[in-house]
Amino acid sequence: MFDKVLIQPDLREKLTLAIRNKKMPHAIFLKGEQGGGNLPIAFSIAREVLNMDKNKGLFGEAPSDDRADRLAHPDLHIVFPIQQLISKKQTTCEQFVNEFREHYLNHPYTDLNSWLEQVGHADKDPIISVSEAEAIIKKLSLRSYEGGFQVMIIWMPERMNMECSNKLLKILEEPEPKKLIIMVGEEWENMLPTIRSRMQLLTVKPFSKMEVASWLTENREISYSAAEKIAEKAEGNPRTASELASGIVVDENDNLVNEWLKACQNYDHVKVILLSDEFSGLTRAERSTFIRSLLARVRKALAQDQLSIKQASKMQEIMEASLYHLSRYAHAKTLFLDMSLKTCKILKGT
């Protein structure tokens, strides 16, 4: 089980035992950073659960069924955040499910920004509306197509508005047999307490650079030494590593990193302002990769005694805060200038 995804051994063992012993909880929350692997793990859980009631073969294994892998199983349902279009009727993700399926199959370690760019909703604030909750309840109230489990995957549930959250409480409070709800997000703490109390939390911890490098070597036609360099630059994030390995994020990004660091070291505010235009012209995925590259440079500089522990700690705090605000749709130019000016002060020692 779970041989196609990047997953920690302890989580793999826990999930494998639960599925084999048919003791899966009715609702779980897979917590992890975006692009960190929790979404592929969720679909892998769905695949195993949807196949576990199939007639066993000669050696006790269920027959191969790749419909869940293709997100095409009739008992697999998917919900994700979308931008509400201006119309009399509320938009639901059913209108975008084909686009999501294609996007995920090409980029399984995707994040919300990449998905929104795919459907032309970048720089919008997507939600999961109460109409979506009504659709979820309706789908799970029906009998399964194949007589086994139904699996509902809700990606980024922290994007549910209050009406949606309250509406879903009923199916969480009164779970029906053979209905599995998997929420996949990163802000468990921001979910309603009444929802948290009815779900089992499973955390997908950040992967080590060695784990990501090994995964890249097994799944890509690259050497281990090349995979190590990619994992280092990606800060252990599978999405960033996958994009680097595919050439989606190109090394020209290093030029911007070098120019920015030089401008901050020289306290060159004019250059910083010029670079802010370049930063705001990047896609959200590229902005995220840029900041992750800065974090990698800071840690490398600390290891080489080019920065003090105090300087590195403060810079890391600023950059991690910038990553968070970027995910919350902060204005790109303002975010870049704020991060830059604070870094200038740290490097100058003021």
Task: Please outline what is shown here.
By secondary structure, the protein is α/β, with parallel strands linked by helices.
Query: What is the CATH homologous superfamily assignment of the largest domain?
Result: P-loop containing nucleotide triphosphate hydrolases
Largest sheet: 5 strands, parallel
What top-tier CATH class of the largest domain fits best? Alpha Beta
Shape: globular
CATH architecture of the largest domain: 3-Layer(aba) Sandwich
Tell me the radius of gyration. Answer: 22 Å
Helix share of residues? 40-55%
Low-pLDDT regions: 56-64
Polypeptide structure, described:
The protein has 350 residues and is of the alpha/beta class. The chain has two domains: 9-203, P-loop containing nucleotide triphosphate hydrolases (Rossmann fold); 250-348. Helices cover 52% and strands 7% of the residues. The chain has helices at 9-20, 38-51, 97-106, 112-118, 130-141, 162-173, 193-196, 209-219, 224-233, 238-246, 253-265, 269-280, 284-303, 309-327, 332-348, and strands spanning 27-31, 76-79, 150-155, 179-185, 200-203. A five-stranded parallel β-sheet has the order 2-3-4-1-5, with helices on both faces. Helix 6 (162-173) links the parallel strand 3 (150-155) and strand 4 (179-185). The termini are far apart.
